[in-house]
């Protein structure tokens, strides 16, 4: 069928702006495919090696499973298996003397899997798993216009469990799993709120769902624990207690808020302390005081005292600290000071929250510091908050052994495995922000890993600098039951199509009946300003001749100023059925800006508006010398 898109292709996850009519037409086109061919035609060959994380030697006898089939590694640690056709593959690695591993790959990633390292089990060694910020209110139950309701009043627990389904195996495998619970919990309506811009609460089903997913502890030392004052805090503490979750970081008075949570893990006594970094501007403020509830205020002195007391009692300690600036690349000076002070007082591990984006890692006196784990279950739509991670840390008593970064994509307001470009978004950001602190990030399969200071690490290869989009391969547009809310279209519908220029998926733009053009836009602008020239590139393939344009709009620095007009920076004429590459430059305005948006406009060339495929889109900010 030269000159036309193959009608047998499979189209997934259709959405659009014409009341669903275009989506219906796309679904009708799918019927032919469903009868003519499977979604993916051939089994996938999965091959690689497994090594010891402790010695680097090949591991024989490891059972590798994917898609219902298995293989055993040979003396060289090698495995090879043919798994049934699928869009993505969950591969598990199991051997009695080592901790299990679980990794997820898109089909096109299977050809180049780095060696997977397994950590040996030994007496006194424990696995900790840490996630970032968690809430399940606001847009989960009251969605934005055009979005689906993720948590329904009649099925809150089941719906919340479903949101955590893709990460439940990782949480359940830990000796201790922890998240930052950044919301008030109450089954009864709460009406008296703190005097602040953003307040929210969720049903206690969230606590039950977290416990069921494998979470053992939640930090309450944050700026939303006291959103609904004393009644809200009391209800929250009651809810996490009823769910069987350990907690610290907040209480009904200053002494209760500062109290650590104590437990025993692998025969070692452990204490976890939570703190928030500031009082907040409202009256009453958000921190606990004599005779008043709230979060524990994490001054340097309070952190030293709390950590020091637990360490002096012979207990290994973890600091959970909520501070720094939102959406930033690294800790503020005061956060860095408090994190290192905690280590000097005896903390064995420091975990940071609040920026809503992932940051890098550092070591101080041999102790690992995670500056920010980003979001975990959160309803923010900013693109920069979507790359995230789970952090797996193996501790030998008080001594750090190894850490592993599990890349996540916060898509559809839920954590799912990061694949394709989104995996690179996580690993490249963490690599860049950690190497600045002298910490190298290696590669184990599709995960990052961190070794103790002084260990030689083959660092993750550096990708092209300046990429801002990371999702333009469209491998993460669909899958895992989660919708990509990043894009919207006027004049048609969008769906993932298995007819990619590279990888497994492209984005298909299907016109609405009678539409003269389709406009594909970002729903939300890039928050970070463009400091240097932008290069926007990709490839387009129309069903019949079409013109395809790229436009950019910058946001003025003043918050009350309207954004600039859309600027058309380039246009290509694309013949029927052929991939045509495009690349156009845009120079930001001389005056400061508050970020920017991109959009694509498709129009017919001397005929009806055709269906269009889009793939391999990049948005690169070039460095200014």
From TrEMBL:
Respond yes or no to whether keyword Membrane is given for this record. no
Protein's UniProt name = Capsule synthesis protein CapA domain-containing protein
The residues forming the signal peptide are 1-41
Q: Print the keywords alphabetically.
A: Signal
Q: Where does the Capsule synthesis protein CapA domain lie? A: 127-380
Q: Record's SUPFAM superfamilies?
A: Carboxypeptidase regulatory domain-like (SSF49464), Metallo-dependent phosphatases (SSF56300)
List the InterPro entries: Capsule_synth_CapA, CarboxyPept-like_regulatory, CW_Biosynth-Accessory, Metallo-depent_PP-like
Family to which this protein belongs: Belongs to the CapA family.
Cite the Gene3D superfamilies for this sequence: 3.60.21.10, Carboxypeptidase-like, regulatory domain, Galactose-binding domain-like
Q: Which residues form a coiled coil?
A: none
Q: Which Pfam families match?
A: CarboxypepD_reg, PGA_cap
